[in-house]
Please model this.
Amino acid sequence: MVNEYLANGRWGTAHIYRSASNAFESYMGYCDLSFADLSAHVIKGFEIYLRRRENSWNTVATYMKVLKAAYNRAVECGASAYTPRLFAHVRTAVDSSRKRSLEAGEIGELILINKSPETAMERVRLIFSLMFMLRGIPFVDLCYLRKTDVKDCYLTYRRRKTGRAITVKLTEEAQQIIDFFAAETSLDSPYMFPFIVSPEGSREAYKEYQRALRHFNHQLQRLSDVMPIDVHLSTYTARHTWATMAYYCEIHHGIISEAMGHSSIAVTETYLKPFCDERIDNANNAVISYVKHRGRKMLKKRSKQRKWSK
Model:
């Protein structure tokens, strides 16, 4: 499957599949194991092995999803019989409980700061603000934006992950940021931002994107150190923040899903679950506070009645 993804230019997916394969081979002691020999016991052991290596639960879930996808492919090809609930006792869902979004005031401050983009920190802040204003555009999609994608105050592009077409009406601030960086990009380059120079779909372009991603995340961490922000900033933060702010503005989940180009509402809800839980907790606290308030009133009333009866 790795070679298939490489042949199709899906370098990121190939990298994930190769990492998962290397981890599984290490767990098995580099012994050959056919899919027909795959058992729930072996898979659970792989999960335990990954946790002992101190891999995060999200990494464990990702590797399990890769192994499950490879197993399903083997079943389709007739290389293995289907075993019901083979992966039922291992984690395949990504954890979304960690806070990944900024507060409204924090993202608002980042957007409203009015400084000349002369320093590296200011340029990073501008790009991060633009990512939020473009409905939380993923960094990979931002890197591959073309100058021709903007026309008549609209940005139109396709998400690299899902292939869905996205159209965003640009605000005046977003248009200014785009114009600034597009003017800095080489005239010969089709790209809007100076992150990539190699042809789209090439291995070189993927390597340039990876370098840009690492550098930008490093710069975002420096930005969070100098700003009063209680969140680890990364390229994902803009996306999670936009989804969260849309949720707080009581925008329907379906509209949020469409706006972000998700493949389904279920994907959107993984972004929103921590904040849905927070609202439920707040509702619970409100209910408890209400009944306690009414209880105090009742106790006070009964206390007065006892005094009068005496």
Summary: The beta strands are 150-151, 154-158, 165-169. The chain is about 60% helix and 5% strand. The first helix runs from residue 2 to 7.
